[in-house]
Every structure is written in structure tokens, then in C-alpha cells.
Design goal:
By secondary structure, the protein is of the alpha/beta class. 40% of the residues lie in helices and 17% in strands. It is built from 8 helices and 7 strands. It has a 7-stranded parallel sheet with strand order 3-2-1-4-5-6-7, with helices on both faces. The longest helix has 22 residues. The radius of gyration is 18 Å and the shape is globular. It starts with 10 loop residues before the first strand and ends with a helix. The protein binds 1,4-dihydronicotinamide adenine dinucleotide. The site of 1,4-dihydronicotinamide adenine dinucleotide has 27 residues, from helix 1 and helix 5. 1,4-dihydronicotinamide adenine dinucleotide binds next to helix 1 and helix 5.
Length: 251
């Protein structure tokens, strides 16, 4: 097992790092001089690789891909953390969702993070931190049934990993973003955007940077006694249940 105990002495692996929330996490980590191994399905051939970042191609569904990433990470020393931000949406409702919708959503959003934890935890020392990116859809009913189910599954993986890795001093937490302005939500309907803003007490959408700030905190020793926890980053969307429309209706 690696001997490093300082949480930021080594690299953090970020999946889904080419876009949206993952890309914002990479930016935050670099601002804090944390070296990053940035993983995604593909990278633009002509894009400059910022100093401090090692870009790798990874399909999070592929155990062999994770094994190669682990081999590469091992050459850099102990890993300080892992952020499982890669994700896909499947927007079919219950009456239309196919077996393929469920298989794909689960493979990327649930099995992928589990495979990553399995492959990389052996490279982590006490003080390391893993953050999974869940969703507001992981704590509520949500029309996109396969996506919601896969994110609910990720909560179970998070809590199990926190239990299993706790004795080694490795923390595992999950964040639940609400509506965040990324390429993923750019393809959602205007109606979905508008109702989210209406039901969000802060009255707006969030930015990838606002999610990255919380993830960076969960990676850092500032949160050294936090594990197995779930944190909403949603402007209050999931905090009121049905309280907000009821309060508005009677005012
Ligand atoms: P995005 O679509 O901008 O970025 C997702 C990234 O994951 C992309 O770069 C994509 O290439 C990568 N990816 C997809 N499948 C992959 C695979 N099999 N292997 C490796 N990489 C893969 O999406 P966004 O919004 O940044 O989402 C990041 C995470 O946040 C996802 O897990 C998503 O479910 C979650 N989330 C996003 C919300 C939002 O409002 N944007 C709300 C709640 C959760």
C-alpha cells in the first residue's frame, strides 16, 4: 500500500473530465495545484493539455480501461482521490424506457463508478477521498426512470464503499446536483429548465463551478470526518419536498 498520507500530495482522477461538472472540477483542482488524471471517452486532438493534467481516454464501463488507468496512476505514486463525474442521461419515461436505456444508464452511472473505486482504491492511502456525482434525481421521483434508478443505485454504492474503505481512512461521499448549466442540460427541454427554476428556492440554475467548489472541499482534509454522506448542491430544490408549491398556493 502507498505510504503517502497527505491528501494532496498526489493526483486525483476525475472522470467525465472533458465537459461540464468534471471539467470544472479539473479546473478547481489545478487552481489548488493538485495534479489531475483527467479521463473521458475522447479528447479534442488539437486542444492544449494544461500543465498538471494528464489526459487519458477511458470508457468507465470497461474494467480493462480502469486497470490500464490504475497502472498509469501507480507510476505517479499514491492517489489522493477519485471523482466519478462521468454520466449519461436517458430521458425515456416509464412507459417507453427500454432494457437498453436501463443497461446503459446503469453501466455508466452506477457500475462505472463502482469499477473505478475497485480499481483505484488499492492505490489510495489514508486521507484519500472519493466523490461520486449523483443527482437530485437520486433522492426523488424523476420522470427519466432509467437515469433516476441508476443514480439511486449510486447512493448504495457510495455508502457501501464508505463502509468498506473507512477502516483504511478513505472517505467516500456523494453530491446531488440540481439543475446545472452544462452540455447535458443544454439538450433538455425549455419546460424542464423552467420548472426546475420555479421549484428551486434560490430561483436560478447552478454553474459547474458551484458544484466543483463543493467537490473540492469533499476531496480536501477540511472534511476529514465526512464519509458516507450525501450533499445536495441544488439551490434548495430537493429540500422542500412539496412544501414550496403548497406555500406559494396559500400565500
Ligand atoms: P456532461 O454531458 O457535460 O459531461 C459528462 C461527461 O461524461 C462527458 O464529457 C462525457 O463524454 C462523459 N462520459 C459519458 N459517458 C462516459 C463513459 N462511458 N466513460 C467516460 N466518460 C463518459 O454532463 P454534466 O452535466 O457535466 O454531468 C456530470 C455528472 O453530473 C453526470 O454524472 C450527471 O449525471 C450529473 N448531474 C448533472 C446535472 C446537471 O444538471 N448538469 C444534474 C445532476 C447530476
Amino acid at each position: 500500500m502507498p505510504e503517502t498520507t497527505s491528501a494532496f500530495a498526489a493526483a486525483v482522477v476525475v472522470t467525465g473530465a472533458a465537459s461540464g461538472i468534471g471539467a470544472a472540477v479539473v479546473e478547481r483542482l489545478l487552481e489548488g495545484d493538485v495534479p489531475v488524471i483527467a479521463a473521458d471517452l475522447a479528447w479534442p486532438a488539437d486542444a492544449a493539455q494544461p500543465s498538471g493534467v494528464r489526459r487519458v481516454v477511458l470508457d468507465v464501463r470497461d474494467p480493462e480501461g480502469w486497470a490500464s488507468l490504475a497502472e498509469l496512476a501507480a507510476t505517479t505514486g499514491a492517489l489522493a482521490g477519485l471523482v466519478n463525474a462521468a454520466g449519461i442521461t436517458r430521458r425515456a419515461r416509464l412507459e417507453a424506457a427500454t432494457a437498453e436505456d436501463f443497461e446503459l444508464a446503469f453501466a455508466v452511472n452506477a457500475t462505472g463508478p463502482a469499477l473505478g473505486i475497485q480499481a483505484l482504491a488499492p492505490l489510495m492511502a489514508s486521507g484519500a477521498s472519493i466523490v461520486n456525482v449523483g443527482s437530485a434525481a437520486a433522492v426523488t421521483a424523476h420522470y427519466a426512470v432509467a437515469y433516476a434508478a441508476s443514480k439511486w443505485a449510486l447512493r448504495g454504492i457510495t455508502k457501501t464503499a464508505a463502509m468498506e474503505l473507512g477502516p483504511r481512512g478513505i472517505r467516500v461521499n456523494i453530491v446531488h446536483p440540481g439543475y446545472i448549466e452544462t452540455p447535458m442540460t443544454a439538450s433538455a427541454s425549455a419546460a424542464f429548465h423552467d420548472i426546475n427554476v420555479e421549484l428551486t428556492p434560490l430561483g436560478r440554475t447552478g454553474s459547474p463551478g458551484e458544484v466543483a467548489d463543493v467537490i473540492a472541499s469533499l476531496l480536501s482534509p477540511e472534511t476529514s470526518f465526512v464519509t458516507g454522506a450525501e450533499l445536495a448542491i441544488d439551490g434548495g430544490l430537493t429540500s422542500h419536498g412539496v412544501g414550496l408549491p403548497i406555500a406559494r398556493a396559500i400565500s
